[in-house]
Amino acid sequence: MPKKRGPAPISGAQMADQKDLFIELVSDGLSARKACSSGKLPTFPTISKWLRDDGEFRDKYRVAMELRAQKIDDDIDDAIEQMKYGELDAQQARVVIDTYKWRAAKLYPKLYGENQKVEHEHKVVSFVDELKLAAAQIEQQRLADKTIDGEAEEK
Question: What is the pTM of this model?
């Protein structure tokens, strides 16, 4: 019984070309799985392995996902135009646009997400320590008010 063989190994240049094609297809709006099913790329598990193992490829994929979200923004504009010219009724357009907005927010939350992340540092200070600090500042100001040109006033 002959052993099953996997796909033939590819050269580094071929792998680089396939990675570039994958990034291009995702940037143009395809999901990773649809890009893999185009027949021009390896299977999705292979792409997943590349994403896990190759940090540079993973970074390019993140940028591609952001570009994909921007493509979805263009699709929203198209839906608005279709509604404007009667190709979609208002209810259909609303469903399409809301779906696109949701997808864009998931793909690129920093730009299209509804929640803005606000970072705030809160330092816990004792009320007593704050009173002591205020008293010291008042005392320092009082002493400064009694001093003229660096010399203390005589009374």
Answer: 0.60
CA–CA gap between residue 47 and residue 105 (Å, rounded): 24
Residues 47-84: b if buried by 16+ CB within 10 A, e if exposed = beebbeeeeebeebbeebbbbbbbbbeebbeebeeebe
Contact of 71 with 103, CB cutoff 8 Å? no
Please tell me the distance from the alpha carbon of residue 36 to that of residue 21, in angstroms, as a whole number.
10
pLDDT tens profile 23-36: 999 999 899 999 99
Q: Name every residue whose Cβ is closer than 8 Å to that of residue 82 and which is 6 or more positions away in sequence.
A: 88, 93
Compute and round to an integer the Cα radius of gyration of the chain.
31
3-state helix, strand, coil in the chain (%, to 5): 65, 5, 30
For residue range 112-151, what is the model confidence (pLDDT) as tens digits? 777 656 676 767 767 788 888 889 999 888 888 776 555 5
Angle at 71 between CA 67 and CA 74, to 5 degrees: 140
**How does DSSP classify residue 149?**
T
